[in-house]
Write a structure and sequence with these properties.
single chain; mainly alpha
Length: 518
């Protein structure tokens, strides 16, 4: 079937209870491809920028705090506005909101590439995160709307698998781009793809009037949620030092409580609390929170161990995770088919339990651990566990609510996943610095280190394994070994905390998710 601009398409006059078979297979393939392309750009940008940070720091002369906010500004805008993005799709139509988010994301990427100072770059990254907040939930909701239930799980599996594969390729691609063309290239890469996806989406995604929810967007809710997330993140690791600031955390929790109160009273909430009356929806989001806390925390610290303790290069460290990402990428679609034959409780309990087991293995390296004997088995087991979890978890969330609230449900689930990773990084950094400092102080005392040397080293303990021993220090090799062992001690406890969170996710899945096939 040939489609052209202005052509009346089979899905144009569909209403809320549409017969999706009116949309032919070609149209559904276009919807899936464009949704995958759009969301993949956001996922790529979330990981590829990390490889550009050293070049950014040198070129723009960024301090540690400014460099941290290059990453944090994007994540905070995304996490804070993603519920607004999902709700906007439900109220104004998924297609226009998806295209708006995609266009804003591409424009902001170009602005990032043209940045000449930290303020410009951080502002552009904030706009980029806002664009992603409208793009990501509506990309998934489009699949939920245009695919009938029998096809939806497989389509979501393709979406999850493609996202995982593009995210896996991003570090390798980013390294090549930065080395060849500079840090600007990782942002210029996004703009033409976003423009292409916008044009294809305007042409190929069927326009479909839906029964939209009434009311206006909940901007007051967003105004309460955004600073609460920012204060919580800053409170756990102010200025990247790992020091916990109870005042910021308390203020953030207060704003979060005010947000919940406002959502309860609002006539058009961005996060309808009525959705949480569903035991399945509650359970799926709790599993998401715990599982992504464990993964976000563990896989933040593992690269530091590989590079700073094990001596891997950045490229080798990125390649170390390929078994996991390839498993998720190629296994998500088959897993979506399996999800229709097994119960969500079985799959997600097994997936979270395997993730827990893999993290336990990864928690016990020595400074001379080999990749094949230690890292590969643990990363592979985590990969199998996440393959069992990613697609079925998304499917459970999207099928636990009414179709007209699919965008909101997707936004809530994305918020849970992303904020879990952010808070895991911040909170566990504080834990790691505390443990590392205590262990190193004890080790230095055992080495009878002179007070001046000890004071100078402890003043920089927040650097963790990056802490270097100046050449004028006596017993430099012994101190370097003490630094490595102290980091391994802190690393081990942090990764075991992540394993415990994964075990909690398995328990939550077993208790709260349905026992019947979906």
């Amino acid at each position: 079937m040939t489609l052209a601009f202005g052509t009346r398409q089979p899905c144009d006059n569909l209403v809320q209870d549409l017969d999706r078979t009116a949309c032919d297979k070609s149209q559904k393939r276009w919807v899936l491809c464009i949704s995958v392309l759009g969301s993949s750009l956001a996922f790529i940008e979330g990981s590829i920028v990390n490889l550009a940070l050293p070049a950014l720091q040198q070129d723009l002369e960024l301090g540690a705090l400014s460099l941290q906010w290059v990453v944090t500004a994007y994540l905070l805008a995304l996490s804070s506005l993603i519920l607004i993005g999902g709700a906007a799709g439900d109220r104004f139509g998924l297609k226009p909101v998806f295209l708006f988010g995609l266009g804003l994301f591409g424009l902001a990427s170009a602005l990032c590439a043209m940045a000449t100072d930290p303020t410009h770059l951080i502002a552009a990254r904030t706009i980029q995160g806002a664009g992603a907040a409208f793009l990501v939930p509506t990309s998934l909701a489009l699949i939920s709307v245009y695919f009938e239930p029998a096809e939806r799980a497989q389509a979501i599996g393709v979406w999850a698998g493609a996202s995982a594969l593009t995210t896996a390729a991003a570090p390798l691609l980013g390294g090549l781009l930065v080395d060849a063309f500079g840090w600007q290239a990782v942002f210029w890469l996004i703009a033409p793809f976003a423009a292409t996806a916008c044009m294809l989406g305007g042409w190929r995604i069927p326009s479909r009037p839906i029964t939209r929810l009434g009311g206006s967007l909940d901007w007051l809710g967003a105004a309460l949620l955004a600073p609460s997330f920012a204060l919580l993140t800053y409170g756990f690791a102010a200025e990247g030092t790992g020091t916990i600031h109870g005042g910021y955390i308390g203020f953030g929790l207060t704003l979060l409580a005010l947000f919940a109160f406002h959502e309860h009273r609002s006539s058009s909430p961005m996060m309808p609390l009525t959705l949480f009356k569903s035991r399945i929806f509650r359970g799926a989001n709790l599993v998401t929170l715990l599982l992504y806390f464990s993964i976000g925390g563990a896989f933040y610290f593992i690269p530091f161990n590989l590079i700073q303790v094990q001596g891997y290069s950045a490229l080798q460290a990125g390649a170390a995770f390929l078994p996991m990402t390839l498993l998720i990428g190629f296994g998500s679609s088959p897993m979506a088919k399996l999800a229709t034959q097994m119960t969500p409780r079985t799959l997600l309990t097994a997936g979270a339990a395997l993730t827990c087991g893999g993290l336990v293995l990864l928690a016990f390296p020595s400074s001379e651990t080999t990749y094949l004997r230690h890292w590969l088995p643990g990363i592979t087991i985590v990969g199998v566990g996440m393959t069992l979890s990613v697609s079925p978890l998304t499917t459970v969330v999207m099928t636990s609510v009414d179709e007209q609230q699919s965008g909101t449900a997707s936004g809530i689930n994305n918020t849970a996943a992303r904020m879990a990773g952010m808070l895991a990084t911040a909170a566990l950094t504080a834990v790691a610095v505390t443990l590392f400092s205590a262990s190193l102080d004890e080790a230095l005392a055992g080495l009878a280190t002179d007070p001046d040397t000890r004071t100078r080293l402890m003043a920089s303990a927040a650097e963790l394994a990056e802490l270097s021993v100046p050449p004028d220090f006596a017993s430099g090799s012994a101190i370097a070994a003490a630094i490595d062992q102290s980091y391994l001690y802190a690393y081990r406890i942090v990764v075991l905390i992540c394993a415990a969170a994964a075990a909690g996710a398995a328990a939550a899945a077993w208790v709260s998710l349905p026992t019947a096939k979906r």
